[in-house]
């Protein structure tokens, strides 16, 4: 039994190293390839130099923030999605399905279309709105009650889906009522893209990822215990309501700030956890594997959207196409289980 534990642990570490190397390769490819191709040593030379060099604008201003944004948002969405899915014990419990990203999107679209703001102000509104909507969904599902046994993850998912539909309707109404000249900026944000990312927002996202991601990793053992049931968690001395609230806050921070930087990149949070689980197995929390998987999905989708198709597409369009078949298969499987059990 002890040998099996160390074997699984070693396998998990090796898989995480492989995923990290794959992320590194995608980052280097995206930094070097484009209309003008630069060698990797030259890229590091430009980034480490304080003097202006050939390709300085392309490497420093265009490619470097884009790659960092893809890396950090992918890791944030990956960890947040896996946390929600494990916490609620449901593969549909993803931030972009239960209304978290829609909460951030409605404020961002309102700021762009109605208030005429952009940049950091839009990001701040998106973060605040995402927090407010998630708090409403959590309290409406009974998560604010003191006894954690009253919490119902299925109720939270259903309320979240309803809130998401309502907020998406508001977004559509604002797009229809506004001037056609303002729609393009809102649609670019809603599609989820890395084209307009500026370096000033990257350090904030990196700090949030470091703090909230560390919090999720520290609570990962309690999260695995909670998956066995609320009563079992209480018997082991774990306080499910406290752990749940802390984990949801960490996942919310990751989702809100990642959405504020790149827009609601579809399906990354939804797909990262199941892919990581399939690769590493169910024996461990696979949070780091989910983070690397999310980064791989975003960076790979960005490369495909830029270079592999006749026209250039935002990263959110490519990830949405990737996630749609899995969602249909998942719904069919869940429906089949429900029919067989009845």
Describe this structure in words.
With 342 residues, the protein is mainly α. It has one domain (2-46, 59-330): ABC transporter involved in vitamin B12 uptake, BtuC. 77% of the residues lie in helices and 0% in strands. The protein contains 14 helices and no strands. Helix 8 packs antiparallel against helix 11 (240-262). The mean pLDDT is 84.
The coarse overall form would be globular
Give the uncertain stretches in residue-range form: none
How helical, in percent, are the residues? over 70%
Q: Give the number of helices.
A: 14
Going by CATH, what is the homologous superfamily?
ABC transporter involved in vitamin B12 uptake, BtuC
CATH class: Mainly Alpha
CATH architecture identity: Orthogonal Bundle
The topology string of helices and strands comes to HHHHHHHHHHHHHH
Count of discrete structural domains:
1
As a percent range, the share of strand residues is under 5%
CATH fold topology: ABC transporter involved in vitamin B12 uptake, BtuC
Average pLDDT number? 84
Structural class designation? mainly alpha
Which oligomerization state do the chains in this entry correspond to?
A: single chain
Give the CA-CA distance, first to last residue. 38 Å
Total DSSP E strands: 0
Compute the CA-based radius of gyration: 21 Å
């Amino acid at each position: 039994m002890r040998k099996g534990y160390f074997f699984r642990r070693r396998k998990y570490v090796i898989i995480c190293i492989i995923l990290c190397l794959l992320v590194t390769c995608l980052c280097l490819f995206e930094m070097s390839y484009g209309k003008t191709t630069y060698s990797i040593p030259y890229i590091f030379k430009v980034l480490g130099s304080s003097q202006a060099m050939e390709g300085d604008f392309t490497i420093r201003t265009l490619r470097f923030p884009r790659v960092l944004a893809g890396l950090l948002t992918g890791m944030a969405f990956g960890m947040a999605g896996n946390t929600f899915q494990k916490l609620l014990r449901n593969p549909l419990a993803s931030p972009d399905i239960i209304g978290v990203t829609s909460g951030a999107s409605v404020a961002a679209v309102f700021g762009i279309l109605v208030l005429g703001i952009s940049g950091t102000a839009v990001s701040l509104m998106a973060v605040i709105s995402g927090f407010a909507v998630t708090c409403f969904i959590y309290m409406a599902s009974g998560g604010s009650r003191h006894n954690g046994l009253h919490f119902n993850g299925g109720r939270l998912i259903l309320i979240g889906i309803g809130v998401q539909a309502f907020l998406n309707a508001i977004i559509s109404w604002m797009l229809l009522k506004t001037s056609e000249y303002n729609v393009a900026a809102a649609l670019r944000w809603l599609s989820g893209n890395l084209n307009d990312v500026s370096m000033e927002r990257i350090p904030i996202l990196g700090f949030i990822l470091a703090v909230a991601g560390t919090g999720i990793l520290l609570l990962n053992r309690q999260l695995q215990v909670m998956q066995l049931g609320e009563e079992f968690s209480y018997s082991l001395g774990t306080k499910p309501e406290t752990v749940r609230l802390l984990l949801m806050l960490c996942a919310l921070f990751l989702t809100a700030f990642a959405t504020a930087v790149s827009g609601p990149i579809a399906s990354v949070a939804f797909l990262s956890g199941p892919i990581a689980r399939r690769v590493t197995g169910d024996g461990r929390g696979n949070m780091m594997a989910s983070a690397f998987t999310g980064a791989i999905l975003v960076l790979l989708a960005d490369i495909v959207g830029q270079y592999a198709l006749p026209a250039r597409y935002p990263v959110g369009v490519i990830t949405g196409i990737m996630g749609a078949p899995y969602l249909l298969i998942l719904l069919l499987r869940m429906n089949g289980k429900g029919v067989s059990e009845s």
